[in-house]
Every structure is written in C-alpha cells, then in structure tokens.
Amino acid sequence: MFRTHFNINVMDARGYIIASGDSSRLGHYHAAAAYVIRQRQELLIDETNQSRWKGSQPGLNLPIIIHGQVVGVIGISGRMEQIEPVAQLVKMTTELMIKQSQLKLQQEWRQLHIDWILKELVESTEIDEGNMRQRLQAIGCSITPPYQAIVIEHESSLQFNTAERFFDVMSRGIADRSVFLSAYRPHRTLLLCYGNASSSLSYNIDQVRQVVTSYTSDYRMGIGSLIQSLHEVRSSFEEAEAALRYPSKDERVLTYRQIQGPLIIHELPSQTKEKLIKASKAYWDDKIEETLKAFFASDLNIAESAKMLGIHRNTMLYRLEQIHKLSGYNPQKFQEAHMLQWIVWLQKALRA
Prior knowledge:
Blueprint: E1 6-11, E2 17-20, H1 31-39, E3 43-45, E4 59-66, E5 69-78, H2 80-123, H3 129-138, E6 147-154, H4 156-159, H5 166-173, E7 179-185, E8 188-194, H6 198-215, E9 219-223, H7 233-245, E10 253-255, H8 256-266, H9 270-280, H10 286-297, H11 302-309, H12 313-327, H13 334-351
Parallel strand pairs: 9-10
Antiparallel strand pairs: 1-2, 1-5, 3-4, 4-5, 6-8, 6-9, 7-8
Helix pairs in contact: 2-3, 5-6, 7-8, 8-13, 10-11, 11-12
C-alpha cells in the first residue's frame, strides 16, 4: 500500500515552532520560517540548500496570510512528490481555521458589549451615557429611537442544548435587523428593537416571531411599549416582563397594551379578586361571558356585537337586560360596564 510520510510544523510570526508532529522541535527557532515571513513567499528546502537554514528539514514552507498580513508559517517536511498535492490544502485549511477563530472572538467581544449595554438599560436607574456611547462606538453601532423591549420565554432545554442553542439560532435569524439580543436569564432572551419608524419595528417583531416559531412551539413573547428615549427602555422591559406574567394558555405573543387592563386586575390583592368572583358565581355562565366579550370588543355597540355573535339586535338587547338584572351592573353604562369587564378578565385568568 502506498503511504505518505511527512511532518507538519507551525511557526509563529517570529519564526519559532509552536506546533509540530515532532514534540522535540517545539520552541526551536526556524530560520527558513523567518525568511518566509520577511519575503511573504514560499520556500522549498532540499539537499542543495538545507545547510543554509538552521533548524530546518527538507520540505516546503508556506506563509499563513490573514487579512493581508503574514501571521505565521506552515512547514511540511518530507519528499516533495508527497508534499506537493497537500501543501496548498493544508495552508488554506489553516488560514480558514484562523479566520473562523478570529470571527468567533470578534462576535463574542461584540456580544459582551451588547450584554453590558442591555444590562445597563434595563437595570440601572441612572444611565452612564458617556460609557454607553463608547460601547456603541466600539462595536460600530448607532441606535436611534423609537425603541421597544421584547422578552422571549422559551423551553429550558433549548438554552443549554450543546448542538444548537436558542440564542445562536436567534442571533443568526435577526443578524441583519436593528435588534440587540442578550440571553440575560436561563430560558429567557431579551431583545431591544430600534429604528427610525414604528413600521420598521413592527416588521422586526414579525421577523423575530417567525424565527422563534420556526425553531420551537414552546415559547411566549412579551412586548413592552414603544418609547422614544433610552432612559425609558427599563420601563418598556418591565412591561414586557409583566406581559409574560399574565396568565394565558392560548396567546403566544402578548403586548403590554393588550393586557394592561387585565394585568392591573391580575395584580389586585387576592381577597379583592375572590370577592368579585364570588359575587358573580351565582349568575355567570358561558353565554353571559360570550355576550359581554362581543359587546366590549365592539365598544358597546349593540348592532355590531349582535352581528359579531350572529344574533338579532333585539336578542342582544334582551341579553344585556338580563345581565343587568342578574348582576346589578348595566353593561350599556360605562361606569358600570367596566366592573363587568373586570369580571370577564378575572374569569379568563381563573381558567388559565
């Protein structure tokens, strides 16, 4: 069987051997490598010139060039007919590995800055604007209003999946978007969207949802309010967190505006909530809840809510009158209707 016999050495930018198939050569100065670094070109060493290069063996030495700079040398010792077919492949593979390593380090360095920026924005009561500008300049980024915070809650196994983390998938999926991303807690990822128009923010949120949905069905997204100042980011973030606390089995994406009313009711003392539920227990049923939901969704418009339910207007009026009679609250009067809306929200929370 035909076998190849050659040894590969890697030399640093000063000409010293830093990796070798022959461990006894580690740390030795390689004169030929130093020459290759200066001349930026390949050097073949054979019996005719070996004595000229201290610490060298017959073979081929090739410069490792990264971004136009020679950062080291690959030395392949052995017979030329065996070395030549693999020499360029070894050189290209080495350069690619170095570039990938550099890229990863740059990405990690950038993410460290983003993590610090988001931590500062959502945790600090006083933002160090000078330090913030320096961090943004360091990563070559400028963020402009409006801003909007999003918190994604996802299944725990994804965050620590060694094959592919949720955070890595999200980073790739929104790489070209105006979004900062940080895995700030186990199974929770924080996003800060920014841009010149609310329409672009809405588009970013849609893109985020598509990426998340393509990766997992076990998630929830809380979205804070649209704000105009970096000093308000903390408030938007707290709203996004509050949206996730709202009990809901069906809704995957909840904006703070959607659940602001129900959330306020949800935060009431347990004793107060129990009192409202207990008072409605005697008369409450699915038909009453369905009627009130349609009535409130249509802004107390009888004709619209009747149409929504597929019933006659007179039937809708009769239902509202019955609700008034049973509950003591008139759904057609705003001051009394809001009490019934509270009960609708509490019933939903109770089921969830």
